[in-house]
Structures are given as C-alpha cells and as structure tokens.
Specification:
Layout (H helix, E strand, L loop, with lengths): L1 E4 L5 E10 L5 E11 L5 H14 L9 E4 L3 H4 L5 H11 L6 E4 L1 H11 L3 H15 L2 H13 L17 H11 L1 H10 L10 H24 L6 H23 L7 H7 L8 H18 L1 H5 L1 H8 L11 H12 L1 H8 L3 H7 L6 H12 L5 H10 L27 H4 L13 H10 L54
Parallel strand pairs: 4-5
Antiparallel strand pairs: 1-2, 2-3
Helix pairs in contact: 1-3, 4-9, 4-12, 5-7, 7-9, 9-10, 9-11, 9-12, 10-12, 10-14
Length: 486
C-alpha cells in the first residue's frame, strides 16, 4: 500500500495485490485507487483497505505479507494500519502477516538521514544559477563543447528522485574547474570552489552517494525475490564496513573522486568527517532494515534449503528439509538456478510447509509502481508542436489507472485561476458525470454559452466557442470546479 497526495491536495491510496496460487504462479494487480478527501488516519486507510478486500471477496486468512511506507498512520502498532490489520487477523482467527517497510523507500531514507547540507546547498545554488537562466545554460554548454568536456551538462537536483542527488554531486565534481571559470566570467564567483576542505567533502559525498545509487539500481531489477533484496542489503552493509576501514586508512581504492582530488591538492584528507559519514549511514541501514533481520532465518531457508542445519530450523520444516536434502533429483533441480521453478517442482503433499514458505516469499517480490509509470510516460512520443501524442497506447496494463498522478510527475503548465461554477452547472455535472473533475479559468465570466454536457435525451449542449471539458477519473461529487481549455 502507498498513500500519496496529488496536485489537487487529494490523498490517493494505492492498494496493489500480489497473489500466488498452489503452482506458484504469480499474479499481480492494482486492486484500487482510493481518493481520500478528509483525514488520512490509520482508521481511514484501514477502512478503504477493507472495502477493497470486500470488493474482491478476499478474507484475512489469505493475507501473508503487507508492504507499507514508513508513515505513522501506516506503521503504528496500535491505531495505525499495521495495528488494525493485526487486530483484524486475530479476530478472524487468521495468522498475522509479515509487515515490511518498502525496501527501496527505506534505502532512500537512509541517505536522506545523512546531513549533506554543507555541500548540497551550495551545489544546488550554483546549478540553479546556471540552469534556470536560459542564456547562462546555453553559454555553459557551448563552453563545455569548446573544451571537449566528457561531461556535457549539469542536471537539476530533484529531491523526490532517488538517483538525483548522486548524479548532481558527481557531475558537479567532474565539472568543478569548468564551473569555477564560468562563474568568474559571469561575475558570480563561488569561493567554495577554491576551498580545498569543501572540495574534499564534495568528493566524499559524491563517492558515497554513488555507491548508494548502485544499490538502488540493483534493488529495482525486475523479478527480484525477497531473498535477492535481502542479499543486496546485507552485501551493502558489509561494504560500508569495508569503506569505513578504508576511510580510516585514507585508502581511496573504492573512492574515485577522492582518489582524483588527492592528486590535485596538498590539503589533508578530513578522515574524521569521512568516517562519521560512513558510520551514520551504516547505523541508519542497521536500524531501518531490522525487520529483515527478524525474518532472516526464513528468508535464508527459502533461498537455499541445502545450506542449513536441520536443528536450527523451525520444527515444522525439519522433516521436509531432511527428505529434500536426501533427494538427488530435487538437488539437481535446485542447481538449475531458478528458485520459483525449483519450488514448483516440489510435491505439495510431500513438502506442504516449504511450498507455503515459497508462496510467502514470492508475494514479497518488489515492484515500484510510480517508477514504472514514470518510465512509461517518457516513452510517449512528442508531436512537432511539443505536445504529447494522444493516440499513444502503453503495453503496461496499469498505465491508464495511474494517469491520475501524471500531473505530479511531469512539469506543470499554467492553467489560470479557478472559479466556482454556477449552481445549475454543478447540479447537472453531478447528475451526468459522477467521476468528473473540472477546473476553471480566468475567462469564465466572458463565456456566453453554457457548458457542453450530454443530456438524458442524448443531445449536446454547447460549452463555449472552441472549448471542451476533460473528464478525469477517480473524482467524486464534491468537485465543483471546471476548466475551459482554448
């Protein structure tokens, strides 16, 4: 589940369901998109969830795992969604599901916990000076082309984009000399670009966040199982231990920016600062992924049932593990490398508990809905006028259902002031279009004719010369605004 606010300040709750049948065939669907116009407490979200489950005739005893964001209304153990789901399962006599905080979201929050303001704020200020002024941007790009720079431009920093921080810091470090020259020519010098201590910090953050971005990309790979994600997180935590020891020794084997800058300056490397950055990041990863550590035994058992001591596993698996490890035929199937196919191969009557464990793990596969939607948006071809091709059809089955968040992901355009529609117009809109969201513009008072609506008789009434309305799904009768597009 994920709850987010759209451009109209309406909270949208996404309920994404993944199901696994007895043959371990995985089915995933966007079950519902619920608009929440009032409060968004745990009780409010739980109510919407209950309605979704009732709609699809799903009961609590089928629920094996829940993935949520880290908000208090979601993660609260008493009155949050987690607590309310737990109580509902206990009341229904069902097994309490596994609750996990969204893995990639946690990884992004770990980086935000590290204080990079001493470097990031000046970098963003300089980037905005160059990028926000068209003339500056053109001249800067021409300058880079003249000197045949490998890095041809600077990117804007966008806080909500997980990879943005690392990309901006790395580009800025690579272009630090060129930026210094360009700012001097524009009579807008930045003194920090001559400060070796600050440049060391820039190099440290650029290297550290690059390592984190590499982890993020691995977590986003398709068809990842929960054991794959757990493996990547554990590997990164081990890497942080290595990186911390290297920082203590001023060993830049895995810090390309620091290694490059060390050949250009006599300024002493800020060892204490660098070690603290790594230590803070390591501690945050340890805290945020503690729920994985709690379930690590089951995850490892699912990942490799041959690499476990029978005495260490739960009693319900022990007999099945002995039978499985003694079978050469099953072992050969495991060596083929595909876990899902391996568990499909197991006989459900002979290995019922292991099959159930595999079903729970398969439901834990991660899919980031909004990132996939953003990728699909960038595939839409542009017309010569710059507008989007209205005839584009995405092959992704959830594209149309996710269109309500499109405005929050793409640059917005000016639409004018919102004006309240007349009472008779609102009444007819409510009667004819229950799922219509309408806006207004500053020229509404000058419109001579009435809005275009489909009446019960099937005839069309005119909206205004050259104007049309645009229906948008997932809206309710409380909307009383409309837009007249020229």
């Amino acid at each position: 589940m994920d709850e987010s606010t759209d451009v109209s300040d309406t909270s949208q709750l996404l309920v994404f369901v993944r199901g696994v049948d007895d043959d371990l065939n995985v089915t995933q669907e966007l079950a519902s998109v619920n608009s929440m116009h009032g409060t968004t407490t745990g009780a409010d979200i739980f109510k919407e969830l209950q309605q979704t489950l009732t709609k699809y005739n799903l009961d609590w005893n089928r629920l094996q795992g829940v993935t949520i964001d880290g908000g208090r209304n979601m993660s609260g153990t008493n009155i949050g969604v987690v607590g309310l789901i737990r109580k509902a399962c206990e009341s229904a006599g069902a097994t309490v599901p596994i609750f996990l905080h969204c893995i990639i979201h946690q990884q992004a929050l770990c980086v935000k916990h590290v204080d990079m303001s001493c470097v990031l704020k000046p970098v963003v200020s300089v980037v905005n000076f160059i990028r926000s002024r068209a003339l500056n941007h053109r001249q800067f790009r021409s300058f880079l082309e003249e000197i045949e720079s490998e890095t041809v431009d600077l990117s804007y920093y966008t806080a909500v984009r997980w990879l943005s921080c690392g990309k901006v810091l790395l580009q800025f470090f690579k272009l630090r000399k060129e930026i210094k020259i360009f700012l001097a020519e524009k009579n807008h010098p930045e003194t920090l670009l001559s400060d070796a201590e600050w440049l060391w910090k820039l190099a440290i953050f650029a290297d550290v966040v690059t390592h984190v971005n590499n982890l993020n990309l691995k977590l986003q790979c398709k068809n990842n199982l929960i054991c794959d994600l757990f493996e990547q997180i554990n590997a990164f935590r081990a890497k942080l231990i290595l990186l911390k020891s290297h920082m203590n020794e001023c060993n830049f084997s895995h810090f390309t920016c620091c290694e490059k800058f060390s050949t250009e300056t006599d300024e002493r490397f800020p060892t204490i600062f660098a070690v603290k950055v790594i230590a803070d990041l390591k501690l945050e990863f340890q805290k945020r992924f503690s729920d994985f550590d709690i379930n690590s035994r089951e995850i490892r058992l699912f990942q490799n049932p041959y690499d476990c001591n029978v005495g260490d596993v739960s009693s319900q698996f022990q007999m099945e593990i002995i039978d499985l490890q003694a079978s050469d035929q099953i072992k050969n199937k495991y060596k083929e490398g595909n876990l899902i196919d391996f568990y499909k191969f197991l006989d459900a009557k002979e290995f019922p508990n292991l099959k159930q464990l595999a079903g729970q793990a398969a439901k834990g596969k991660w899919k980031n809905l909004k990132d996939k939607f953003r990728v699909e948006l960038h595939k839409i071809p542009k017309k010569r006028s710059g507008s989007e091709n209205d005839n584009y059809k995405s092959k992704w089955p959830f594209f149309d259902m996710m269109l309500f968040v499109k405005d929050s992901m793409l640059p917005s355009t000016t639409t004018g002031n919102l004006l309240k529609a007349p009472e008779n117009t609102r009444r007819r809109l409510q009667e004819n279009y229950t799922n219509l969201q309408l806006y207004g513009n500053e020229n509404f008072d000058q419109v001579r004719s009435q809005p275009r609506l489909h009446t019960n008789s099937g005839e069309n009434e005119t909206v205004g010369k050259g104007s049309q309305y645009q229906p948008i799904s997932q809206c309710d009768e409380n909307y009383s605004m409309f837009r007249l597009d020229p």
